[in-house]
């Protein structure tokens, strides 16, 4: 495929998304076949927000492919404050072979991709979480056999996870519903993109304020935290507003009898989901979390495998002055 970055599900064709999923399945089935594929290559991981799954799955994933990772914490880099995004990109491209970034504003990953000569991977922004969506649909494929035609009901905040779930669902021909309180819908341009892509793939994207309507006869019921990282100050206010959107047994019962419950995690048990649902036999949240590893190994392989580690830039005589 020869893609350089992994910034958004929207940047790919449906065939390319399916290619990543096929590669992830192959890697999951035959991990040792790829164990030396990224030998001698280093992934820098810039985290401006906390993480368990993203950090561990990228770290373990690149090691399983024969490479190394470097964890850069929020305190160390301070993108755009201690140092400009441009300078961070121009420094890191001299020393590592790819950069994964978890940050706030989405334009930071886009600017990093514009400035850096090495691949950039979006490890979550306020706008989207594409690596999560790859793991989500890998899990759905494993459990349901196929994604096209399935009803995927997202209940809660129309946030980054919701956007990527809609984008990938549209790519794969799913019927994605998002049930949110008024004022917390996914962004209009994200819905518009999903509708347009869905028109080509058979997928649809439907918004509602009624969680029962979204969950009714669904194959997948998905939720996420009501206040995302960076919105902690709103958590108390949101808790009251979002309570009717809690995925509890009464709501989950409206889905198909073999529906699966999904959550990107971390979960706030007792808020967006009850213990009864997340600990039920229908819950696949830990399989979903494990699939972050396999899905991201496919992304790392595709982006990094055939890129050589460059020779150091040789000294050049000065011929001009500024
Ligand atoms: N789902 C997810 O991205 O988890 P972390 O925030 O722990 O990385
Ligand atoms: N919407 C959540 C997802 C965490 C993986 C957040 O951004 O905090």
From TrEMBL:
Q: What is the lineage of its organism?
A: Bacteria, Pseudomonadati, Acidobacteriota, Terriglobia, Terriglobales
Give the protein family: Belongs to the aspartate/ornithine carbamoyltransferase superfamily. OTCase family.
What pathway, per the record? Answer: Amino-acid biosynthesis; L-arginine biosynthesis; L-arginine from L-ornithine and carbamoyl phosphate: step 1/3
Query: What gene does this protein come from?
Result: argF
Read off the HAMAP family from this record.
OTCase
Q: What is this protein called?
A: Ornithine carbamoyltransferase
A GO CC term attached to the entry:
cytoplasm
InterPro entries recorded: Asp/Orn_carbamoyltranf_P-bd, Asp/Orn_carbamoylTrfase, Asp/Orn_carbamoylTrfase_sf, Asp_carbamoyltransf_Asp/Orn-bd, Orn/put_carbamltrans, OTCase_ArgI
By its UniProt entry, which Pfam families does this protein fall under?
OTCace (PF00185), OTCace_N (PF02729)
Q: What class of enzyme is it?
A: transferase
Main localisation: cytoplasm
Which UniProt keywords are listed?
Cytoplasm, Transferase
The cellular location(s) given in this protein's UniProt record come to:
Cytoplasm
Ligand binding (L-ornithine): 160, 224, 228-229
Q: Which GO terms describe its molecular function?
A: amino acid binding; ornithine carbamoyltransferase activity
According to its UniProt entry, this protein's organism is: Candidatus Sulfotelmatobacter kueseliae
- Domain (Aspartate/ornithine carbamoyltransferase carbamoyl-P binding) ranges: 5-142
Alphabetized NCBIfam families for the sequence: orni_carb_tr, PRK00779.1
């Amino acid at each position: 495929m020869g893609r350089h970055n992994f910034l958004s599900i929207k940047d790919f064709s449906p065939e390319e998304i399916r290619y990543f999923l096929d590669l992830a399945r192959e890697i999951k089935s035959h991990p040792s076949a790829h164990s030396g594929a990224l030998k001698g290559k280093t992934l820098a991981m810039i985290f401006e927000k906390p993480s368990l799954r993203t950090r561990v799955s990228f770290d373990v994933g690149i090691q399983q492919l024969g490479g190394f990772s470097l964890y850069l914490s929020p305190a160390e880099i301070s993108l755009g404050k201690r140092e400009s995004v441009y300078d961070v990109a121009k420094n890191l491209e001299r020393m590592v072979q790819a950069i994964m970034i978890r940050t706030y504003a989405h334009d930071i990953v886009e600017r990093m991709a514009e400035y850096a000569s090495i691949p950039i991977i979006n490890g979550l922004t306020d706008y989207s979480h594409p690596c999560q969506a790859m793991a989500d649909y890998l899990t759905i494929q494993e459990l349901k056999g196929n994604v096209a035609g399935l009803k995927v009901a997202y209940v809660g905040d129309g946030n980054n996870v919701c956007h990527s779930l809609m984008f990938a669902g549209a790519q794969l021909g799913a019927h994605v519903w998002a049930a949110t309180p008024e004022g917390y819908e996914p962004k209009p341009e994200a819905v518009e993109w999903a509708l347009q892509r869905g028109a080509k793939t058979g997928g649809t994207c439907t918004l509602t304020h009624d969680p029962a309507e979204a969950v009714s006869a669904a194959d997948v019921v998905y939720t996420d935290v009501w206040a995302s990282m960076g919105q902690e100050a709103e958590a108390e206010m949101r808790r009251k507003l979002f309570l009717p959107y809690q995925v509890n047994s009464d709501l989950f019962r409206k889905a198909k009898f073999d529906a699966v419950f999904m959550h990107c995690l971390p979960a706030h048990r007792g808020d967006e989901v009850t213990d009864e649902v997340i600990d039920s036999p229908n819950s696949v949240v830990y399989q979903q979390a494990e699939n972050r590893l396999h899905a991201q190994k496919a992304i790392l392989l595709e982006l990094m495998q055939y890129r050589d580690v460059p020779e150091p830039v040789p000294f050049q005589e000065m011929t001009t002055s500024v």
